[in-house]
Amino acid sequence: MSIISRISVPFVSAVMLVTLSGCIDESHVGKGGSTSDAGSVMDKIINTPSQAVPGELLVCLSADAAEKACKGEGLDMLKCEGIAVTGFSPVFHVTEHNRKYLRKHQLDRWYKVSFDGIGVDCAAAALAELGTVSKVQYNTMTSCGSDAKAVRSEASVTKGNLPFNDEKLSDQWHYINTGDKTVATEALEGADISVKDVWSRLNVGGDKEIVVAILDGPVKYTHEDLKDNMWTNIFEISNDGIDNDGNGYVDDIHGWNFERDTSKIDWTKRNESGHGTHVAGIVGAVNNNGTGVCGVAGGTGNGDGVRIMSCQIMEGGISSNINSAAHAFVYAADNGAHIAQCSFGYQNAVYKSDYEYFSSYGIEYFAIQYFLDKERFAEMEERLNKKLIESGKLARTRIIDGPLVIFAAGNDGLPYSSYPGALMDCICVTGTGPDGLPAYYTNFGPGCNISAPGGDYYLNTETGKSQILSTFVSEATEAGGSDYAYMGGTSMACPHVSGVAALGLAYAKRLGKTFTREEFIAMLLSSVNDIDSRLNSGYKYLGLDPSTGAELPSRPYSSYQYNMGTGSIDAWKLMMNIEGTPTLCVKVGSERRYSLDRYFGEASEYMTYESVEMDRETMQALGIKRMPKVENGMLVINPGKTGSGKLTIKAIAGGNSVAGSMQGDFSGNGDIVTVPSYDGMGGMYITREISIISRGIASNNGGWL
Predict the structure, then answer these.
(1) Structural contact between residues 455 and 492, judged by C-beta atoms closer than 8 angstroms
(2) C-alpha separations of 653 from 18, 593, 645, 683, 687 in Å
(3) Strand blocks (E) in 367-480
(4) Any idea what the Cα angle at residue 663 is, between residues 657 and 664, rounded to 5°?
(5) 592-595 and 634-637: which strand pairing?
(6) Bond from prior residue into 495 cis (ω within 30 degrees of 0)
(7) Segments in 113-157 forming alpha helices (H)
(8) Which of 112, 308, 439, 608 could cross-link 431 (Cys pair, CB 3.0–4.6 Å)?
(9) d(CA 357, CA 47)
């Protein structure tokens, strides 16, 4: 297998940006603070022209001006010397249903202004002079959080004891890591998301009610391994040129193209990266269809995968703009998304607080808040369910009281997360390799919440198999015309967490449980495996400087310690947290003893234990040859391989025996009653189910999580 293409990231844009003239002194750019006589106008400009889209700006009108703009008076309000305005349109599609919440989050006042013959900095200065304009924002370019080394996936055949029949599943080490040295010589068994037993033991593969919006490049919705799990707007009629459902978008069947503001989601553009399709496949490629790869929440082969909504904010590359991203959040919110999957961020933008980011990216910040708004979410679900029932369909289940936003941490190797992922309202994901250690590219430190497999190219430069295998677009050139490819980056780590979160929502639905968003996030971020205990010593190879080609100095692993988030995401543990079943993490390869105090109290050592039961499937999953037992209040267990399962322990409270009972006609009137047996005294059985997960390293706290 050979490397087909390598794209160096970060880079500015697939589109050449014009050189900006020096009309603005960036020291005067507004940051939300006080104004001076010289800077009062310039304080309206809330970010810098760095990486700005030429020929357009975003403006927030004053309240009065916004009312007039709704009546078609916008161009008259923007007349100023030296600017030939060629376009003026609201950023967001306003409908009777979202108007209230757009106004609540100050989004109804944002407009995109297009112009000719003048640099964006000079245009911004001129527009800031107008009393009708309250803020001016450059339409900054974003980049995806991908290392973007796409490597074609050759033909492969599923091998081993796997839960699904997808032909390339055995190459997806990020789901089931067997320690295969052809992936990487450092590959560590169990360094994965622990999803195998969720699929096979719990029979949880997703749920078609759960909607994950992919804010990214276009998702190839005709892909053989994605088409059956694509979100479909059932209230819209395709290609009739009418907004049938009144959501403000015409013919939006599988999502929307926000770069062009059209229903045509287009993955055929020159230099298409395939990034959005790759990310979508990690979340929800169709499982058990005998084809291609698996998705974390792709279902079990029974049409039960999560639904993928394509919110295209990139076109023909891996760059976008802030206007498209903000617009996509509102669309995803209005159309029922539970999760916004966001593998993008702002390169070379150093913000050290949420307030700094908010001050520079107000329109995107408020769009994220719009998506997260619980009141809006509840109203949307009520309206959606009413439409479903009226059309003879089942209503959507209420599982969580607010949606989730999940971001990639970034690929600059910086000791802090990029924004928007670092926001306190967003879940931010760092990246690890098949060795379970931080990947060479990953950001780490403040703002980072959790880690997941993102691949590590330098662990196997020959085949690229140490990266993440997922769906791709054959129209792209990066992987030689393949519909499957390996890519790496926090872009690939992020959808693992989105997929696990979607699995969790599906399992909660099955169990009939509902959670607040805060409860669910707490469970998600605590459903992890330890990384930090392995980061005491050694150095991380960081590869080559993308600008010079020189080898970068290695970084001590201790730099990453306690900075990768809470740990590495574990799907099985999340399901157990949702059940309310605490998990005991045991060490593979040696017989060990674990205290049962957490289940049977601090006197567990002195209790009488009646039995330990474990079914054959769990014993096989954990590689256990002898049934576990309890000795002196300690569980004795010896797993032979990584896996997950459950066991049941029966103990006696109140003595060393249970009196028992017998049935009979003791009154002589023919009634059968239950009475105590002839011997024994008191006692009561306590039966507790325990989740067991075996790993190469046991957790702290005696292995309990």
Answers:
(1) yes
(2) 77, 22, 26, 6, 10
(3) 404-408, 427-432, 450-453, 468-471
(4) 145
(5) antiparallel
(6) no
(7) 120-128
(8) 439
(9) 9
- Which DSSP helix (H) or strand (E) runs through 620? helix 616-622
* Separation CA 33–CA 43 (nearest Å): 8
pLDDT score for 14: 26
Taking phi over 0 as left and psi of -120 to 50 as alpha, with beta for the rest, 489 belongs to: left
> Is 457:148 a contact under the CB 8 Å cutoff?
no
Number of H helices, E strands in the chain: 15, 29
How many Å from the N-terminal Cα to the C-terminal Cα in the chain?
A: 41
Enumerate residues 6+ apart whose C-beta is below 8 A from 689: 581, 646, 647, 648
Examine the pLDDT at 407 and tell me if it is beyond 70. yes
CA distance 564 to 447: 10
Contacts of 194 (CB under 8 A, 6+ apart): 529, 570, 571, 572, 573, 644, 693
For residues 705 and 699, give the distance between their C-alpha atoms in angstroms, rounded to a whole number.
8
Cβ atoms of 569 and 502 within 8 Å: the answer is: no
H or E element, residue 342: strand 339-342
Tokens 């990310």 — which residue?
Answer: 279
Residue keyed to tokens 């700094």: 356
CB 503, CB 296: distance < 8 Å: yes
CB 146 within 8 A of CB 11: no
Cα distances from 129 to residues 42, 122, 132, 144, 648, in angstroms, run: 8, 11, 9, 34, 72
Contact between 59 and 110 under an 8 Å Cβ cutoff? The reply is: yes
632-674 residue pLDDT tens:
889 999 999 999 999 999 988 777 777 666 777 666 777 776 6
**What is the Cα–Cα distance from 475 to 268, expressed in whole angstroms?**
6
Taking only the tens place, the pLDDT of each residue in 471-520 is: 999 887 766 778 999 999 999 999 999 999 999 999 999 999 999 999 99
Burial of 266-282, coded b for 16+ CB within 10 Å and e otherwise, reads bbebeebbbbbbbbbbb
Cα–Cα dist 145/148, whole Å = 9
If one counts every other C-beta atom within 10 angstroms of the C-beta of residue 157, the result is 8
Answer yes or no: are the C-beta atoms of 380 and 334 closer than 8 Å: yes
CA–chain centroid gap for 555, Å, is 27
On the CB side of 385, CA atoms within 13 Å amount to: 11
Q: Which helix (H) or strand (E) holds 555?
A: strand 555-556
Query: Which residues are paired to 585 by β-bridges?
Result: 693
Backbone angles phi, psi at 213, to 5 degrees: -85, 125
Strands 592-595 and 608-613 come out as unpaired
- Cα angle 400, 402, 403 (rounded to 5 degrees) comes to 100
Name the pLDDT band for 3 (thresholds 50, 70, 90): very low
Exposure on the CB side of residue 289, measured as CA atoms within 13 A? 22
